[in-house]
Design brief:
It contains 3 helices and 8 strands. The strands form 2 sheets. Strands 4-5-8-7-6 form a 5-stranded antiparallel beta sheet. A 3-stranded antiparallel beta sheet has the order 1-2-3, with no helix packed on it. The longest helix is centred in the middle third of the chain and has 25 residues. The structure holds zinc ion.
Length: 194
């Protein structure tokens, strides 16, 4: 079973999510930060004056995922690699084989790693563990958080790790960026020549 955070939010005036675990007993409690020495306490249906402030820090910590979660993550990884391996075998190309090795290597890392190749970047990072993500998800990476932001690449989530291959900037902005970098380099060379 996954450990989840209580989904209750305080009223707009406070704008704070309950920091206790889901299905907890008693009132909702939340501190504004890990360093805050006090916490708000409220009951369901509290009015805007129904908050009490008490000493003590109440912040949600996800902790280590359960054994069941980790087994599921492992199973999803094995299934993914099985599918990928089969695909590689069917296609039978060295490119597929290299990609497969890279994916396996990337999945074994614990820290974020990114490799930039020109306008593109590829890397792996750990998904923030507020609430554990699904075992497997695949989607488009975008240039920004706006829903109409252009697609920049592909993102695959396996358990807590996310693989991402995407462009750093749209093609037009990249040309602009390179032009500016070149101008700056030229200016710097002129400066040092003087
Ligand atoms: Zn709560």
């Amino acid at each position: 079973m996954r450990r989840r955070q209580c989904l209750t939010w305080a009223k707009r005036e406070v704008g704070l999510q309950c920091q206790r675990r889901a299905r907890h007993d008693g009132p909702h409690q939340a501190s504004f930060s890990d360093r805050s020495g006090t916490h708000f306490e409220w009951n369901d249906g509290a009015n805007r004056f129904g908050y009490e402030v008490h000493p003590g820090t109440v912040r949600y910590r996800p902790g280590t995922p359960s054994l069941a979660y980790r087994l599921g993550e492992w199973t999803a990884s094995v299934l993914f690699f099985g599918a990928f391996g089969t695909l590689m075998w069917v296609i039978g190309s060295p490119v597929a084989a290299v990609t497969y090795c890279l994916v396996v290597m990337l999945l074994s890392v614990q820290r974020p790693h990114f490799v930039d190749v020109g306008r593109f970047t590829a890397g792996v990072f750990l998904v923030p563990q507020r609430n554990f993500p699904p075992f497997f998800a695949i989607g488009f990476a975008r240039y920004g958080p706006e829903p109409d932001a252009g697609r920049s690449g592909l993102q695959v989530i396996i358990g807590r790790r996310s693989l991402m291959v995407c462009a750093l900037l749209p093609r037009t902005e990249w040309a602009e960026f390179q032009r500016r970098t070149a101008e700056r380099d030229t200016a710097r060379r002129k400066d040092s020549a003087r």
